Amino acid sequence: MEEKAGRRVVLVPVPAQGHINPMMQLGIALHLKGFSITVALTELNHLTSPWEDFPDFQFVTIMGGLSESEFKKLGPVEFLIKLNDMCESSFKDCLGQLLQQKQGNDIACVIYDEYMHFAEAAAKDFNFPSVIFSTTNATAFVCRFLLGRFKENWFLALLKGTSGFSVSDLHKSLNSCRAVSMVLFFIEPGEQDKLVPEFHPLRYKDLPTSAFAPLESSLKLYTNVVNKGTASAVIINTASCLESSSLSRLEQDLQAPVYPIGPLHKAASASCSLLEEDRSCIEWLNKQKPSSVIYISLGSLALMEHKEVVEMAWGLANSNQPFLWVIRPGSIPGSEWTESLPEEFGRIVSERGHIVKWAPQKEVLSHSAVGCFWSHCGWNSTLESIGEGVPLICRPFSGDQRVNARYLDRIWRVGIQLEGELERGDVEKALRRLMADEEGVVMKKRALCLKEGVEASVRHGGSSHNSLNEFVDFIKGL
Ligand code: UDP
User: Whose CA is nearest to atom 11 of ligand 1?
Assistant: First the structure.
């Protein structure tokens, strides 16, 4: 433990698995540095099992948040917009109550998820310093910065084809080629495959727009996300060896210090699964040959169309490789669980497959039997796969997943992105490239190099390790 034990940090996570995991890892990392930790949860995160594993943390509830059924009804983007509208005053109540207790006397700062910007306004009211925690990567953040600038009415009108603006008007008002290209992307279908200037290797279609909401809503959310307000700094769950130029660019865009301290799961392990993990898959993996298994999981929110699931299933079957498939109940619209899978596929599963509702993913990825990861490329899954040197089949669904998939395929070259309509023949071919061909062997070597790089960054003297120490010094000085 280091000096100043007892100074308190208040953490405000988004109530979703992919955001809670890194926030709790951050909590542990800061606790190890001597800080006391308070976690402010919205009512959506029932105070049940995972929190019992954090006996040293204090948990408080931000009352009046939205329920699970509202989350399902609104979808993640609209939900976050509403949550931010509703939670500011109840979070102020939380901070007020903390101040009345002993624990509130020494609050060093409030660290909030980039999507919980109401926390910044509340912290400001109490004169507490605030810090943004980005649970996605720097490149996606920079892209959101770009997208967030376009919420003005004229831009939305242009999208809908109802404005009198022309591209030369835009040149005048924006004076930026990049911005004009952005607009073209939305008005000319063919533009979507083109590279975004200065954003190599991202194409317009890789920009992190949401599959869950209309563009206007995503832009509204992004505008708030990139507006740091009075936040003093940004910490981000990435490593400089993964995206150093995006990190510099982010620092420039935000005009604030940016601390890349990830991958946090390599620095601080935290077990906080909101769903019950089915450990039968570990026993099943124990019986498989080394590097033989295809692990498939699309995270906690992505959905799969019935038609796509069928093509995936036959592609997997025809690849002749063993597979472990996480199918979240409700992730195939119209199905409770696996009933929409082809009946004959059941025989293949019993021969060489295993299907579960939720897996202990980090343990699965570190298992020697796993040879590749078919992923939606959420940032946590991406980091967890990189952290174990497991190459990926990338099939992004929404938002920053597209950015991550493109980087996995084109920059880090440890993944194969499957694009367009999914077809069983393409699935089988991609799996063979990765699992049986020389290309897969080379990719595995690169994946192991990347793993070494990120592991080195969190070790003593590594870039993320140093960055965390610098951040600790920074908040001690606030
Ligand atoms: N996860 C898990 N078990 C599963 C599937 C996912 O524990 O069966 C975890 C995974 O390890 C990761 C998180 O859920 O930490 C998903 O986060 P990610 O950013 O990859 O995707 P999201 O769910 O936010 O789309």
Answer: 361
Task: Assess whether the C-beta atom of 362 lies below 6 angstroms from ligand 1.
Answer: yes
Supply the CATH classification number for the domain 8-142+219-271+460-476: 3.40.50.2000
**Ligand 1 lined by 379 (C-beta under 6 Å):** yes
Residue 88: pLDDT band (50, 70, 90) is very high
Residue-wise pLDDT tens digits, 457-477: 999 999 999 999 999 999 998
pLDDT one-digit tens code per residue, 121-155:
999 999 999 999 999 999 999 998 877 666 555 45
8-142+219-271+460-476 and 280-456 share one CATH topology? yes
- Provide the whole-model pTM: 0.92
Containing 348, the helix (H) or strand (E) segment is helix 345-352
Distance 172 CA to ligand 1 centre (A): 44
H or E, element range at 386: helix 379-388
Q: Largest Cα–Cα distance in the chain?
A: 65
Written as one string, the DSSP assignment of 389-453 is T--EEE---STHHHHHHHIIIIIS--EEE--SS--HHHHHHHHHHHHTSHHHHHHHHHHHHHHHH
Residue 257 gets which letter from DSSP?
Answer: -
Q: Could you tell me which of 165, 35, 47 has the C-alpha nearest to residue 20? A: 47
Cβ–Cβ under 8 Å, residues 21 and 45? no
3-state helix, strand, coil in the chain (%, to 5): 50, 15, 35
Distance 282 CA to ligand 1 centre (A): 17
pLDDT tens for 345-380 read 999 999 999 999 999 999 999 999 999 999 999 999
Question: What residue spans define the domains of the chain?
Answer: 8-142+219-271+460-476, 149-218, 280-456
| 326 confidence band (pLDDT: 50, 70, 90) | very high
Tell me the sheet residues that pair with 323: 294, 353
Domain 280-456 has CATH 3.40.50.720: no
Q: What are the structure tokens assigned to 153, written together?
A: 């009415």
CB atoms within 10 A of CB 61: 16
Closest CA to 182 of 208, 220, 221, 214: 208
